[in-house]
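Exercise 7.
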Amino acid sequence: MNGQAAATRYESLDAIRGVAVMGILAMNIVAFALPMSAYFNPAAGGAPGTSDLATWAFNFVFVDSKMRGLFSVLFGASTLLVIQSAEASGRSAVGTHYARMFWLGLFGLAHYYLFWFGDILSLYAACGLLLFLFRGLSIRALLIWAGAFLFVSLLFLGSTWLSIAMLDTGGLPPETAAAMGQQMAEFNAMMGPNSPTYAADVAHFLGSYREIAGTRMGPDAAEPLVQVMLFLWESMALMLIGMALFKSRMLTGEWSPERYTKWATVCFAIAAPVLAWMAWHSAQTGFATMTVFGTGLVFSTPFDILMTVGWAALIMLLIQTRASAAVRARLAATGRMAFTNYLVTTIVMTTIFYGYGLGLFGSVGRAGLYLFCFGMWAAMLFWSKPWLARFHYGPLEWLWRSLSRFSLQPMRKGAAVQ
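Solution. The predicted structure, written as tokens, is:
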């Protein structure tokens, strides 16, 4: 592959990344607008209304974890593409990769401490430290390693769920149960119905910037590290699947429509009924802490990943067979600016919902939150393409690339890209 070929962009990969960066907002919007306990449990603030319950159920089955999963799959694919492009152009692949991960980690930490607790960039940078080691593996080997990482994730979170279940049912020795009492109280506040901290959390996020950011920089300063410890395993599994799907040419739009249709159908047919049953079961138990933890973080995980792959196949099918050239171009531009769009979304949403902005935190129901998603999606689609008609990169993509290359990169169209 020569340098020119290495620089070739895959429109389909950019387009599906555009869908993913919009989709992750549909997942994150609850965390932007409501206490974190509501993100896990629709009954955290009290019995949910019909529209809120229906919106939660739809998200649980089709959106939550799946859009983050798709974002992670595409991060793995894009990482491999960058490594291959660096090798093809004669640059140091290891230097290029680790410089990108170093700066991505710093961007992520700045995102967390300055703007929002839900950052995933620092987690992705941590995964990136390992991803380089898997770049030369075959599709089969990548999937085996993905299975191994997924097994560790399930073992880790599953053992925590088992401890909660045993405590909840009185199955632990008295001395062990007493020691876990405080931890169980924290789980109930974070994931249980009628969270005792719900009102306090609403009041906190209606406070000043200094108060909100002060919590992230003070008591919650170690949270990025905690997230890495908890979710590196599942994220690595998804990213390795992304590498495998890129090598199989699925994410470059080179499969036949029939093959995309088959994969989407099989994945949805297996995953959707199981996830729908889990949603029903959670509601039947009154969204008990043990059930919410188990269905949300443990037992749903394999089916979430399966549906993530199904979404990838379905989106690629629609891009290939249904989307017009204009739609593909809009989505691809949005995907090429995914880094900028992701961070700008945080700034816009926290300004809308937090106390130092419009102060809407805790006052909009789940169904109504989709209106904010629609508005932000329209903004992404509207501004990304005109920007890239004039410039080589999105603003933050340019900054990331310049820092990683240790030199200012050409920005305006007409200047040669390095």
